[in-house]
Design goal:
Blueprint (H helix, E strand, L loop, with lengths): L1 E4 L2 E7 L9 E5 L9 H10 L1 H10 L7 E5 L7 E5 L11 H18 L4 E4 L11 H18 L5 E6 L2 H15 L1
The structure holds adenosine-5'-diphosphate.
Adenosine-5'-diphosphate binds next to α1.
């Protein structure tokens, strides 16, 4: 599914983010930037050790913030590492932190002059954020950002499962109807 908002396309696809050819891909990292399972492990495996070398130099990233490194051997030139919240019960600032993680990632992309960026579904794996809620927070943040900031041609969500793609599709339909 695709929607055009101003001069930016928002695209939802099912797939593996490590093979994306956008200028940057976003990693759902942890605050130590230490690598791990899920999409984080997949990105470091596919991109090789240069990404971790830069992560070590940066040292860490608080929840809701984002940092940028090389894409190493990936097709994407950069990896933007952001740290989403661990979901507890929804009353611990999770939504604001998740939105901030998307916003800070988009800000970094624009600051670097990038035109195209791909996101995974941040926080909805090991961090336990319910995907129906997370998809609305993610897409509403992206839409608000691109209404207020020029420069991005494409914001793509690369979802790993049919269930995730369905949740994001419903959320985008709801937000644009
Ligand atoms: P978090 O710790 O932020 O929850 P996870 O990596 O555990 O991060 O999960 C985030 C999402 O990334 C999950 O929906 C998971 O299915 C998905 N995912 C895992 N591997 C990939 C991949 N190669 N490409 C895109 N999404 C992926």
């Amino acid at each position: 599914m695709e929607k055009r908002i101003g001069s930016t396309t928002v695209s939802l696809v099912r797939g593996d983010i490590t093979v994306e050819e956008t200028d940057a891909i976003v990693n759902a990292a942890n605050s130590r930037l230490a690598g791990g399972g899920g999409v984080d492990g997949a990105i470091h495996r596919a991109g090789g050790p240069r990404i971790m070398e830069e992560c070590r130099k940066i040292g860490g990233c608080p929840t809701g913030n984002a940092v940028i490194t090389t894409g190493g051997g990936l097709k994407a030139r950069y990896v933007i590492h952001t740290v989403g919240p661990v979901y507890r019960d929804g009353s611990h600032g999770e939504e604001e932190l998740l939105k901030k993680a998307y916003r800070e990632s988009l800000k970094l992309a624009v600051k670097k002059g990038l035109k195209t960026v791909s996101f995974p579904s941040i926080s909805t794996g090991a961090y336990g954020y319910p995907v129906e809620k997370a998809s609305e927070a993610a897409l509403s943040t992206v839409m608000e950002f691109i209404k207020n900031n020029k420069g991005l041609d494409l914001v793509k969500f690369v979802l790993f499962s049919d269930r995730d793609l369905t949740a994001y599709t419903r959320a985008l339909e709801k937000l644009t109807s």
